[in-house]
C-alpha cells in the first residue's frame, strides 16, 4: 500500500528499494504511547538568531534537501548530517518551493504546512540550533514561479505571489532564500525580488542565486536576465552564487571555468562550486579525488573559494539512499575538516521527533497526517540523545 502511495504521489524518484520496509519491523516502542508535548518545537518559539553571512564563513558546505520522503512514503531525516561524525555543513537549502499561478505556494507538490512535513520542519529547527543555516529555494526546473503571471508580474501580481513567499519564509523561519531561476525572467523582475527580500528581511538574510556556471561567464543561461547586470545593480545584497557546474553547463574536473568566472569579475569567495552529489542526479559528476584536486588548485590560486554545493541530499554517493551523509563527510574532508557543529538532543526532543515522524508518513489520501497506526521510525532518534 505504501508503495502505491509513494508511486501515486511521486514523493521520491523511482528508487530501487533494496530493503524490507522497516515499518513492518519490530514492536512499537513504548515511548510512542507516552504523552508527547504536542509540538517539539512550537511555532510560538522565539525566532532563531541569524548569524550574518557576509562571505566570512567560507568555505561553505551547502546541500540541497529536496526529496523529503523515501519510496515507501517515509520521511527522510536530515539529522545524520549533524549526528554523523566529521561533517561541517554550513547551509542546508530546503526545496523546491513553487509559486503556482492561481494557487498557493507549494513545497514540491504539497502545501508546506501539510503534516507530511512535520519531520522536515522539526528537524530544520534542530539544524539551526546546531548552527547550520537553513534556507529555502524557490524555482528550479519546474516552470511557473518567475513568470509574468507570478513573481515577474505587474505590481499587483507581484505583491500577491511574493506575499506567499514572504509568509512562508516567516512561518518556517528560513534564514535565507536561494533563487533558482530556470525560466526566462526580466532584469527588472529579478532586481525587484532581490531588493524586496532584502527590504523585508534585513541585512542578515541570506540571498543567493543558483545560475548555471556558464551564465556567470557571459555564456549560456536559463534565467534570461544578465547576471553581470544583476551583480552591478544589487550584487551587494547577494551573499553568494551556487553555480551549477554540471548538466552540460559547467564542469569542476578542472579549474578553467571557475577561473573564467573570477576573470569575469566575481570574487572567488562568492562562487560556490555546485556539484551533483551522484551521477544519478545529473551529468558532469566529478569523483571526489578529482574534485579535491580542483579545490586544491583553486585555493593555491585564490587563497580561498566560496565552497562546495551539492544537489541533492537523499541519494548522495557513495553511500546512496542508505548512507547519504557520506558525501558530506568527504566534502568536509576536502573543504573544512574539523569545523563540525554540535547538535544537542534530549529525550524529550527525541520523543517529539518520533511523533513528528509518524505524523509525516505519506499515507493519507489527502496527504494530511495519518497517524493511524503506530509505526517505528526508520531513524533511531533515541540513539542521538546526548543531552
Ligand atoms: C491559500 O492558502 C490559504 C490558507 O493558507 C487559503 O485561505 C486560501 O484559500 C488558499 N488559496 C488558494 C487559491 O488555494
Ligand atoms: C496585472 O497582471 C494581471 C495578470 O497577472 C492582470 O490580470 C491585471 O489586469 C494586471 N493589472 C494591471 C494594473 O495591469
Ligand atoms: C540568455 O540565453 C538566451 C538564449 O536562451 C539568450 O537569448 C540571451 O541573450 C542570454 N542572455 C544573456 C544575458 O546572456
Ligand atoms: C586532497 O588532496 C590533498 C593534497 O593532494 C591530500 O593531502 C588530501 O588527503 C586529499 N583529501 C581528500 C579528502 O581526498
Ligand atoms: C513538529 O512535530 C509535531 C508533531 O508532529 C507537530 O505537531 C509540530 O507542528 C511540528 N513542528 C513544526 C515546526 O512543524
Automatic annotation (TrEMBL):
One of its GO terms (biological process) is carbohydrate metabolic process. Residues 1-19 form the signal peptide. CDD domains: GH18_CTS3_chitinase. InterPro entries: GH, Glyco_hydro18_cat. The keyword Signal applies. Keywords: Signal. Residues 59-338 form the GH18 domain. Gene3D superfamilies: Glycosidases (3.20.20.80). Pfam families: Glyco_hydro_18. It comes from the Eukaryota. This is Chitinase 2. It comes from Echria macrotheca.
Amino acid at each position: 500500500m505504501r508503495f502505491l502511495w509513494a508511486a501515486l504521489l511521486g514523493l521520491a524518484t523511482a528508487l530501487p528499494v533494496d530493503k524490507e520496509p522497516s515499518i513492518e519491523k519490530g514492536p512499537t516502542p513504548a515511548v510512542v504511547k507516552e504523552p508527547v508535548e504536542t509540538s517539539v518545537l512550537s511555532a510560538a518559539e522565539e525566532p532563531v538568531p541569524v548569524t550574518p553571512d557576509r562571505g566570512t564563513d567560507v568555505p561553505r558546505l551547502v546541500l540541497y534537501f529536496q526529496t523529503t520522503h523515501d519510496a515507501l512514503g517515509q520521511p527522510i531525516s536530515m539529522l545524520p548530517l549533524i549526528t554523523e561524525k566529521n561533517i561541517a555543513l554550513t547551509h542546508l537549502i530546503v526545496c523546491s518551493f513553487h509559486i503556482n499561478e492561481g494557487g498557493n505556494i507549494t513545497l514540491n507538490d504539497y502545501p508546506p504546512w501539510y503534516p507530511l512535513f512535520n519531520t522536515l520542519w522539526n528537524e530544520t529547527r534542530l539544524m539551526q540550533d546546531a548552527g547550520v543555516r537553513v534556507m529555502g529555494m524557490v524555482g528550479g526546473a519546474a516552470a511557473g514561479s518567475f513568470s509574468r503571471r507570478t513573481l515577474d508580474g505587474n505590481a499587483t501580481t507581484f505583491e500577491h505571489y511574493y506575499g506567499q513567499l514572504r509568509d512562508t519564509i516567516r512561518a518556517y523561519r528560513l534564514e535565507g532564500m536561494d533563487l533558482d531561476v530556470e525560466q526566462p525572467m526580466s532584469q527588472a523582475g529579478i532586481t525587484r525580488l532581490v531588493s524586496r527580500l532584502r527590504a523585508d528581511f534585513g541585512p542578515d538574510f541570506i540571498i543567493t542565486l543558483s545560475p548555471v556556471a556558464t551564465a556567470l561567464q557571459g555564456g549560456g543561461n536559463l534565467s534570461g536576465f544578465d547576471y553581470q547586470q544583476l551583480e552591478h545593480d544589487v550584487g551587494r545584497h547577494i551573499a553568494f552564487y551556487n553555480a551549477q557546474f554540471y548538466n552540460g553547463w559547467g564542469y569542476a574536473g578542472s579549474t578553467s571555468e571557475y577561473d573564467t568566472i573570477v576573470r569575469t569579475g566575481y570574487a572567488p569567495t562568492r562562487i560556490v562550486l555546485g556539484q551533483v552529489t551522484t551521477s544519478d542526479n545529473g551529468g558532469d559528476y566529478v569523483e571526489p579525488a578529482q574534485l579535491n584536486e580542483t579545490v586544491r588548485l583553486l585555493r593555491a590560486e585564490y587563497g580561498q573559494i566560496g565552497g562546495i554545493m551539492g544537489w541533492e541530499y537523499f541519494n548522495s554517493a557513495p553511500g546512496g539512499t542508505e548512507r547519504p551523509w557520506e558525501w558530506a563527510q568527504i566534502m568536509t574532508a576536502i573543504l573544512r575538516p574539523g569545523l563540525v557543529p554540535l547538535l544537542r538532543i534530549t529525550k524529550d526532543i527525541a520523543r517529539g521527533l518520533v511523533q513528528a515522524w509518524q505524523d509525516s508518513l505519506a499515507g493519507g489520501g489527502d496527504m494530511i497526517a495519518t497517524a493511524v497506526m503506530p509505526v517505528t521510525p526508520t531513524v533511531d532518534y533515541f540513539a542521538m540523545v546526548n543531552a
